[in-house]
Predict the 3D structure of the following.
Amino acid sequence: MPADTSDRAVDGDATPPPANANEASVEPPLPPGVQDTHDEQTPPGVTPVTAPPLVAPQGEPLTLPATLPDGPAKFLNGEWRVNGGIQDKHTGRPLQLQYNFDQGNGTVSIRQSSGVTCRGPANGNVQQGALNITNPEQMTCSDGSNFIVPTIECKSPSAGHADCIGSNDGEKTFPIRMLQPNS
């Protein structure tokens, strides 16, 4: 008896059988708008990744309370990542400071591209409606060196997230982003 060459129905969808078992495609069809990028250097069945990676949300930006009495920043709690203006002196790549506060007192740490880690104390104080994050001393690093941490000053517009700037010993300022990581 000859093989059935009619369309087969599966859950109401018509699907034609493969013309020859040796000709069946093992690769799924390309989505609309995506070009076939196979070449002689790319093994069959391997599609190079051409889409940009998904970037996960980085966390909640710092928001200052509506009223800020002068003194210790008791509202400043938990882990904070700080981005902007801080670079690895060997590679020029951006570095990220990590702060951990408990009612305005805490620590700051950083990991350099060389693997060297640095750590030191940090304090958050409010003066004239602005949050100032300072470091009473330089960070001490695992290789015996020291790392100077920028002083950070944050002010809050009438509504919204805090605008922060950093500076090293009062020199040129640069923008800073303070984010509390998502849990």
Summary: The radius of gyration is 28 Å. The first strand starts at residue 8 and ends at 10.
